């Protein structure tokens, strides 16, 4: 009888507690996360304004960057409003179906971002290893198909996660020890067999993140081989310089992604540490991406300076 008293059948709501053990300082933790989100949204909106209007940026790398910027804005919109409501206003309750929708949105956008990073690596590979055929390979129609396939792959595979959760009916708790609805954090609430959910989560993670990471690494092995075969030092530096922004974004995304992924399933990391790092993993790369690419590209730097100078002059 005791187990029945603490079980929930088809719960309609869940409770997100934020960061376990740090509830007393969550109010202050919200401010740096809000600042990072603000930088991310403003930076990515600026990219979405500049890239379509600047003809010199109508290249595969920057088209993919625009998709990445839209994805990053979506991630911030999916996570930050509810997280700040928890931290600042103690608004912890959430409809169960809304929680599943947030879960799907966050993980699908993560997978789209991973796919776009793979597409950007392929662009760098063709630009450096087969420059004469670069434009003929990555035509506008091929770019569109690549982006659509990345979105379909993420939607179909990640869509399995909330569908499998919906088949669970009995839960031993409705309190999620997290600041957003993460897949395993929700699955662990169930009082039923969750082996299928765990296997599916690993399958989706390895099928998307693992597959993309392996092929990005292969692309860069081939790129570095081609670069080091160049005889002139200036040519090698120029070729390598075109990849540095993407390498930085790739490393920050996958290192944090796999740490978050494995620590929640197999690690013995403190819950507060895991949640802080997983939130940083989701919010910091979207803020850094426009900064990294803005610093590396002269056209973007120039247009950003023009935007802020125009705003400054209009205020005067």
From TrEMBL:
Bilayer-crossing regions: 27-50, 62-89, 101-122, 142-165, 202-227, 239-262, 274-295
Bilayer topology annotation: Multi-pass membrane protein
Main localization of the protein described in the UniProt heading: membrane
Signal peptide limits: none
Classification via InterPro entries: GPCR_Rhodpsn, GPCR_Rhodpsn_7TM, Olfact_rcpt, OR51/52/56-like
Intracellular or extracellular location(s): Cell membrane; Membrane
Keywords: Cell membrane, G-protein coupled receptor, Membrane, Olfaction, Receptor, Sensory transduction, Transducer, Transmembrane, Transmembrane helix
Residue ranges occupied by any G-protein coupled receptors family 1 profile domain in the UniProt entry: 43-293
Function: Putative odorant or sperm cell receptor.
Similarity comment: family membership: Belongs to the G-protein coupled receptor 1 family.
Name of the featured protein: Olfactory receptor
Originating organism: Equus przewalskii
